[in-house]
Write a structure and sequence with these properties.
Shape of chain A: globular
Distance between the termini of chain B: 32 Å
Helix content of chain A: 25-40%
Strand content of chain A: 15-25%
Helix content of chain B: under 10%
Number of strands of chain B: 9
Distance between the termini of chain A: 27 Å
Shape of chain B: globular
Strand order of the largest sheet of chain A: 3-2-4-7-1-8-12-11-9-10
Order of helices and strands of chain B: EEEEEEEEE
Number of helices of chain A: 12
Radius of gyration of chain A: 19 Å
Strand content of chain B: 35-45%
Structural class of chain B: mainly beta
Number of helices of chain B: 0
Structural class of chain A: alpha/beta
Oligomer: heterodimer
Strand order of the largest sheet of chain B: 7-6-5-8-9
Radius of gyration of chain B: 16 Å
Chain lengths: ~375, ~140
C-alpha cells in the first residue's frame, strides 16, 4: 500500500539561505549557489559535514553542475544529483530531499537551486511534433489567451490582473533578495509597455539568475546537532502531478493546480481557508487569480473582488506571494521553488520582518512547470 | 493554389477558400487530436494502427484571442493577433489570425482557416509559401 509523506517520520526545514535573484551577470554559478548553501548552513547552525545528501534543482546549467559547485565546501563523498523539472525543478528537489529524510534514508538533506539563463530550446520543440502557431505562442501569450477567456466569463477587467502586480511588487519592495524591489501603482502597471493581450511588462516575471537553499532534517538530527526546535518548520504534505487530457475548453494549468493542491491540502489534514501564507506560481499576474480559485482559497470568479478588498495582502485573510512572488522576487527557474519554501519558513518562524504576516502557522508553496507539471507542499509550525 | 504550403503535414487546401486540418482519431477511445502523430494516443496510450487519419476541416468558434505586441524572435514581426479556435471537429488549436488587430474579435465568433502568404518570401524571389491562418467569418451565434 502506498503512503503519503505524513505517514512517515516528520521532516523539518531547519535552515534557509538565498543569493539575491538578479539580472544575468558574469558571476559564475558556483558563487551564487555557494552563497545560498553557506547561508542555509549558518541559519541552521550546522556544518557542511552534517549534510548527508543533495538534490540540486536546475534546468539550465547543463550536465554535471552540482559537484563542480559543492566540492568547494570540502568533499565528504555524499550523494549529489541534478533535478530538472522545468519551473518546478526546485520544488521537485525539495520534495525528494523531504521524502528522503521522512523515509529515513537520510537524517539531513540539502535542496539547492541554482540557475543562469541559457538560450537552449525546450525538449518539447524537438519531439518531432509541431503545431501551427509557428513559434508565435510563447508563455505570455498562452496566459494572455487564458486571461481574455477569464475577462469574458467573469466580466473581469485588465485592472483586476494588474492589481496582482501592484500587491506583489509592494511585497517585494521589502525583500532584499528580490530582483524587482520597487513598489508600483496601478497606473505604473497599466501604463507599462504592452506585451500580450491584457498583460503589461510588470505583469510578467523577470527571469534572471540566483540561488536558494533549504536544509531538511529529521527529529533525530535536530536533537543530535542541537538545532533550535523553535525555528524548525514541519513538512506536512508533498504532492506532485502531471497534466492529463482535460476538457478542451478548460484552463489546463488551473485544472492541474486544482488536483495537485487538493491532494496536498487533504494530506495535510487542513482546508484551503486554513492557510495563512501562500507562495504560488505567479509568473504572469493572471495566474495568481486562476490558482487562488483553483486552490479553493477564492470561489469561482471571486478572486478579483477579494484581491481588491485586501484579503490577499500581508495582514489580510491569507498573505499571497509575501516574498513578492515570481513577479517581483523573480523567477530564475531552478531556485524559484526552493525560494518559496524559504519564504514560507521565514513567515512561519515569524522572522519575515517588514513582510511578516502575523501569527502565520500554515503555509503552502505551489509551482507549475511547462510540460506540464505541478508540485505543492504544505508546511506548518510544529 | 499552386503555391507551396509551409506545413503540408499539418493542413491542406481543399478547393476554393477551404482548408482541412489533418488530425487523428483514436479508434480505441475515440479521442480526436491535432496534429497527426503515431507515437500514441494522449488519452489512452493506443498506438500504431489504432490512430487513424481524419480531416478536421477548419471551421470553429473563437475561444479566445490576444494581440501580441512584442516577440523575441527576429523573424517574427509584432504586433499580430493569436486566436484560440475550438474546431467544430473537437480539438482546440492556436493560430495566427488574418486580422492585424483585435477590433473584430469576439469570443464565440465563427472562424475558419485560410491559406495566407507567409511573411517571408521563398528564397530566390519565388512565390511566398502559404501558411494556415484563421479569419472571423461570422458573429457570435
Amino acid at each position: 500500500m502506498t503512503k503519503p509523506i505524513s505517514a512517515f517520520r516528520p521532516a523539518y526545514v531547519v535552515g534557509i539561505g538565498l543569493h539575491p535573484y538578479q539580472r544575468m551577470t558574469e558571476t559564475p554559478y558556483p558563487v551564487l549557489g555557494l552563497a545560498a548553501v553557506r547561508e542555509a548552513l549558518r541559519d541552521a547552525r550546522i556544518d557542511w559535514p552534517a549534510v548527508e545528501s543533495v538534490y540540486h534543482g536546475t534546468a539550465l546549467l547543463g550536465m554535471a553542475s552540482t559537484r563542480a559547485m559543492l566540492r568547494h565546501l570540502g568533499g565528504t563523498g555524499i550523494p549529489m544529483q541534478q533535478v530538472e523539472n522545468a519551473s518546478a525543478s526546485g520544488s521537485t528537489a525539495f520534495r525528494l530531499a523531504a521524502l528522503e529524510v521522512a523515509t529515513g534514508v537520510s537524517d539531513v538533506a540539502l535542496a539547492v537551486g541554482v540557475d543562469k539563463p541559457s538560450g537552449r530550446p525546450l525538449a518539447g520543440s524537438q519531439t518531432g511534433i509541431r503545431g501551427i502557431e509557428g513559434g508565435r505562442v510563447v508563455p505570455f501569450t498562452h496566459f494572455a489567451l487564458l486571461a481574455q477567456r477569464y475577462i469574458e466569463r467573469h466580466d473581469a477587467s485588465p485592472e483586476d490582473f494588474a492589481r496582482v502586480a501592484v500587491k506583489n511588487h509592494g511585497n517585494g519592495a521589502h525583500n532584499p533578495y528580490a530582483q524587482r524591489q520597487q513598489a508600483r501603482t496601478l497606473i505604473d502597471v497599466l501604463n507599462d509597455p504592452a506585451i500580450s493581450g491584457p498583460l503589461t511588462r510588470l505583469q510578467c516575471c523577470p527571469v534572471g539568475e540566483g540561488a536558494a537553499a533549504v536544509i531538511v532534517a529529521s527529529e533525530e538530527a535536530i536533537g543530535r546537532l542541537g538545532i533550535d526546535r523553535n525555528r524548525c518548520v514541519r513538512v506536512l504534505s508533498s504532492a506532485q502531478r502531471t497534466e492529463v487530457v482535460y476538457a478542451e475548453s478548460s484552463n489546463f494549468d488551473a485544472e492541474l493546480t486544482r488536483q495537485t493542491t487538493a491532494q496536498a491540502i487533504a494530506e495535510a489534514g487542513i482546508k484551503p481557508t486554513d492557510l495563512d501564507v501562500i507562495e504560488l506560481h505567479d509568473a504572469f499576474s493572471v495566474e495568481e487569480i486562476f490558482y487562488l480559485e483553483a486552490m479553493g482559497v477564492a470561489g469561482d470568479g471571486e478572486a478579483p473582488a477579494m484581491l481588491r478588498s485586501g484579503a490577499f495582502d500581508i495582514g489580510g485573510d491569507v498573505a499571497v506571494s509575501p516574498s513578492g512572488g515570481l513577479l517581483s522576487m523573480g523567477h530564475p527557474i531552478g531556485p524559484t521553488g526552493i525560494g518559496q519554501i524559504a519564504e514560507v519558513t521565514r513567515q512561519l518562524r515569524g522572522e519575515a520582518g517588514m513582510r511578516q504576516h502575523a501569527n502565520a502557522r500554515l503555509g503552502l508553496a505551489h509551482m507549475v512547470g511547462v510540460g506540464a507539471v505541478c508540485v505543492v507542499h504544505v508546511l506548518g509550525t510544529p | 493554389m499552386s503555391n507551396e504550403l509551409s506545413h503540408p503535414d499539418l493542413y491542406r487546401g481543399s478547393g476554393g477558400d477551404s482548408v482541412e486540418l489533418l488530425g487523428i482519431k483514436c479508434t480505441r477511445c475515440g479521442y480526436v487530436a491535432f496534429p497527426r502523430q503515431t507515437y500514441g494516443c494522449e488519452k489512452c496510450g493506443a498506438d500504431g494502427d489504432a490512430l487513424s487519419n481524419v480531416e478536421l476541416g477548419s471551421n470553429g468558434t473563437l475561444a479566445s484571442y490576444a494581440t501580441v505586441h512584442m516577440h523575441q524572435a527576429k523573424t517574427i514581426t509584432a504586433p499580430f493577433v493569436i486566436g484560440e479556435i475550438a474546431l467544430d471537429a473537437g480539438p482546440t488549436v492556436r493560430a495566427t489570425m488574418v486580422e492585424g488587430d483585435d477590433e473584430s474579435m469576439q469570443i464565440g465568433a465563427r472562424v475558419a482557416g485560410r491559406l495566407h502568404p507567409a511573411p517571408t518570401a521563398a528564397e530566390g524571389g519565388g512565390a511566398p509559401k502559404l501558411e494556415l491562418r484563421f479569419v472571423v467569418t461570422g458573429a457570435r451565434a
